[in-house]
Write a structure and sequence with these properties.
This protein is of the alpha+beta class. It has helices at 16-20, 24-33, 48-54, 64-72, 86-94, 107-111, 126-136, and strands at residues 7-14, 37-44, 76-84, 120-122.
């Protein structure tokens, strides 16, 4: 079985706190240095209806309203990433939701200050990733990028 057999896609949201703190470039660079390909990306304001669809799994939980308020308060950057074992790779790179519990070297351990203001969101499974990507991107918004093993095709 080759690495390409494990190619996945995931959604990443660089949240308002990261955008306001000007950490977008640093976060994107970490994913790119890891070899993940950006196949769709945009900066946007998430409106409440989209936020409700995205966070529907949390409806009824005590933090639901504050989560919706936070994600809709300021611009975000949304990306679809692709690569081998992309979902688990992104989740390891992000670190634990609570930055005080995140492993050193992860995005949240290095930059996050609060459990709710934790800089990034990443899909937690292939089914979730498919659903979330479809919420934020149309098929026309995707581009194809060569993976690092395909770079020799340019020579």
């Amino acid at each position: 079985m080759t690495e390409q057999d494990h190619t996945e896609r995931t959604l990443v949201i660089i949240k308002p706190d990261a955008v306001q703190r000007r950490l977008v470039g640093e976060i994107i660079a970490r994913f790119e240095r890891r070899g993940l390909c950006i196949i769709a990306m945009k900066m946007m304001h998430i409106d409440r209806p989209l936020a409700e669809r995205h966070y529907a799994v949390h409806k009824g939980k005590p933090f639901y309203e504050s989560l919706l308020h936070f994600i809709t308060a300021a611009p975000v950057v949304v990306m679809a990433l692709e690569g081998p074992h992309c979902i688990s790779t992104v989740r390891r790179m992000m670190g634990a939701t609570n930055p005080t519990e995140a492993e050193p070297g992860t995005i949240r351990a290095d930059f996050a200050t609060h459990v709710q203001y934790n800089l990034v969101h990443g899909s937690d499974s292939q089914d979730t990733a498919k659903h979330e990507i479809e919420l934020f991107f149309t098929p026309q918004e995707f581009v194809s990028q060569p993976h690092s093993t395909d770079l020799f095709a340019f020579q």
